[in-house]
Specification:
This protein is about 85% helix and about 0% strand. The protein is an all-alpha fold.
């Protein structure tokens, strides 16, 4: 068994033997189910009204009316939930005094970070997979387009991966899990409101603010548009977060 998978397995056991993962997943599923049910109910109401006019009835699109807002709602829930998932990854090691033992082991810093990060990604995948269960019935009873649906979930995973990479960085900087979660949430919120600030900006600044915003890159994926610049943005952000984490731990390890 590789060192990375050993660390991943250890972190997964820690997640699911404590109430953190179960509570986060339960709240996420409850909220996602509520939003999905509300959107489907609203869609059915609109469809019955539009059925009286053949022209408007042909304009009905379940992807645009249900799944696009559903994915945007899930992105906000992830912004609230994922700082709780990432807050313990290194903060707990520092608080319990096991950090030095971990860093003096033959396992490299990169393997430690990757193992912890993979465990958080698996929790994220579990959250998204469970949220997708109710949506399957729309394919049984309706005819949504599969490509925007799949790209929407891909966007949620990439968005969550970026959130977790930032969270693991803040977790490496402090031993207090609450402080780590608050710093992660505050930073994510800042990147969220950059798109709002872009509306009042002009020229180059508007382009820069739009590019830096998490959700400007997410919107296209919910519409079924796969742009390589969006993939590069999320992967680069995740890599940069893990790189900063590696730098922080290396500095503390050798000081």
């Amino acid at each position: 068994m590789s060192p990375v998978w050993s660390i991943t397995k250890k972190e997964l056991v820690s997640y699911f033997t404590s109430p953190i993962a179960c509570i986060v997943i339960a709240i996420f599923i409850l909220l996602s189910g509520f939003f999905f049910y509300s959107l489907v109910w609203w869609f059915n109401t609109q469809a019955m009204q539009m059925a009286q006019n053949p022209y408007y009835y042909q304009q009905i699109n379940i992807n645009q009316m249900v799944f696009a807002p559903f994915f945007h709602n899930l992105s906000i829930i992830l912004l609230l939930m994922l700082p709780v998932v990432s807050m313990r990854l290194f903060s707990e090691e520092k608080k319990m005094g096991t950090e030095e033992l971990l860093f003096t082991s033959p396992v490299s810093v990169f393997q430690i970070i990757l193992g912890k990060y993979l465990a958080a990604l698996i929790v994220l995948l579990a959250m998204l997979a469970l949220s997708a269960i109710p949506t399957i019935f729309t394919f049984i009873h309706g005819n949504p387009e599969p490509v925007p649906y799949l790209l929407g979930y891909l966007g949620l995973f990439l968005l969550g991966a970026a959130f977790l990479a930032l969270g693991i960085f803040w977790s490496a900087l402090t031993e207090n899990q609450i402080v780590s979660a608050v710093l992660t949430f505050g930073t994510l919120l800042l990147f969220w409101v950059l798109s709002w600030a872009a509306y009042s900006a002009r020229g180059l600044w508007q382009d820069v603010l739009n590019y830096l915003s998490f959700f400007e890159h997410f919107d296209g994926l919910t519409k079924g548009v796969l742009d390589t610049s969006d993939l590069v943005y999320y992967l680069s952000f995740a890599f940069f977060g893990l790189f900063l984490t590696h730098s922080v731990i290396q500095f503390r390890r050798w000081r």
